[in-house]
Each structure stands twice: as C-alpha cells, then as structure tokens.
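User: Could you check the structure of this?
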Amino acid sequence: VLLALVAGVAGKSIPAIYVSGTPYEIGYAIGSTFQAQFQDFLVKYTSLATILLPYYETPQGRQVVDDYLAANTRQYPHFIEELQGISNGSGIDFYKVFILNIREELFLILQGNTTEDLNVPSCSDVLVRTGSNTLLGHNEDNDKAIGDDAFIQHVIPADPSLPAYSAYTYPLLLAGNAFTTNAYGMVFTVNALFPKNIQKGALGRQFMTRDVINSMSIDDAISKLSVGPLASGFSLNMGHRATGELVNIENAPGLSNRSILVVSPNNYSYHFNEYLRMSTPQFPDISSEHRLARVQQLPAPHSMFDIQHILGDTADKQFPIYRDGAPPDDTVTMASVLFDFDAGRAQVFVETNPATGPATLTWDF
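Assistant: Sure, the predicted structure tokens are below.
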C-alpha cells in the first residue's frame, strides 16, 4: 500500500492510495489507511445518524436493509467482501458501511413519505465527439460533508482477469460511483437520478456501478447492467478509448430497463440529474432543470475548451452549473474531470473551476 498526498494549485490537494490484492485486502487497506478520515466523516455526515440509522432501527427498515444485503451478496459477493475489509480496517461497523452504500435507495424510499428533500442532485456531464477525437467532461457535485473526505484509489486486483482501475471515491463507498478509468481504456462517469418506483430486494446502484468499471467494452458494460433487477436508477456516461465510442445510458428500476444514447461523430450530448428520454416517474430536481436550461443557451460544444467553459459556468446565480453551495443550492462541485481519449489523459480539478484554474492532477488511461 502506498499513500500519496496529491497537492495541486492554490492549496488544493487530494489523497491518493495505490493498492493491490483481493477484494477483502483492498478494502482493508483502504479502511485502515483512511481510518481517521472515515471516523471523522461519520461525525460530519449527520444524515447517517439522523435519517438512515433511525430508519434501520425500525422493523420495516431493518427488513429493507436485510433484503438488499441478501440480494447484493448473492450477485456481488466479492464487493461485500471489499466492504467487510473497509469495515474491519476502519473499525466502523459493517452495517453502517453497507447502509451508506445503499443510501440512495433508502433516501428514495423515504422521500415518498416526506416533503423534505432528501436527495442530493449531483453531477453534470458534457459528451463530445469531434471528427477525430472523443471528449468527456464531468462535474462531481455532492454534499460537502462527503466530498471533503474524497480520495483517489489506483487499484490492481489480484485476480488477473480483472483490470486495474483509477477512481475518485467517497469515504466508505465502493469505487465506480463518481468517475473512473480502467486498464482497458474505458471511462465511466455517473449522474444521480431519482426514480419514484424503487424496487426493494434488488441490486443497489453502488454495486452495479462497481461491477461496470470492470468492463472491457461498451457491450460488456451493458451485459453487466443486465445481470439482475436494479433497485433505483442512475445515468452512466461511458466511453472506450480504443474505439472512440461514447454513450449515455439512463437506467431505471427493474431488469434491463434503460435507454441508450450513442453520441455519433461531430455530435454532442449533455446529462444532469433528471431522466431526459425515459418516462420513469421521478422526483423533480430544480437544479437540473436550471443547469439544462443554461446549457441550452450556450454555444454547442465542439472542443475541450467549450466543455471547460460549460462545466465552469456560473451565470445562473441561483442554480449554476459550477456549484459553490450558496443558497438556494446547497450542493458543491467537489471536483471536475476532463477526459481526452486521443491523448489518453484525465485532468482533475479539485474544488477548482475548470474554466479558469489549472488541473490539480492528471492520470493516464
């Protein structure tokens, strides 16, 4: 295990861990390395103590969590082993670690019974194919209490059939939920979606996205999205360096319930935190509606420069694309990433506007 503090401009930095091993060993190394940060995160992330754990302590909530644990253990035993490693390494109870990894599903279940907005509208993406290159830009938005303890993990699995991967990761969560590249030249980013028709006892979004980052191709990823019924929903932006393919896949609850948009050469697309092509019943997100309206006012993107200036746009003072947590928008852009497929290079901007500031770090894919 190697831990490095990646320091960037203007005092911005993010820890990076380099680790190899079995799923349990990888989880244990991450948990033990970041034990202090993870313990501190549990104090700052008040939603666990005030919303998620009280629900778990009810008979109904305990049954819901147990059913999700059973379903995801059957389909993804290695990822449960990884979470057990994180739990043992950090000294944090396994049930708390697991609940955090199904928090989107639990929030959506609870959202149906309250007027309080429990969902965190997170992430904006701009997808561009020029005549000769593929470009993808992503804003990683989240609750600042989560984002402050994010880290980069560079992992080489002990199983030689699995690819190495690099992932921006949140405390106590599996990789794959934010932005990731793997050794096959695949790139993945995720946008939160908020469907109303949540399926209990089905596969968690966090587990399915963790599986997807092992994909060797777009088709392989689609097969991994089809292994069983999805509990909630998410938007997956995905590209393959070898072929230049670039797609957005909206996923909704159920088995293989999705819409695939293929970005053709000399074309572009966007995605935020609402379904754009599916009629899935969803909780509305005013920030996404503002971000979409603003991007439609801007010139069509054809270059990395254009992507940077879209992701860094702050013209909408209430709900900007690049977010600073100022009311009424309480979500923050924790990082931005630009993927240049021709160069095989990811540029990451940690709490730095990608339109104005230099990258905090880069990695090759």
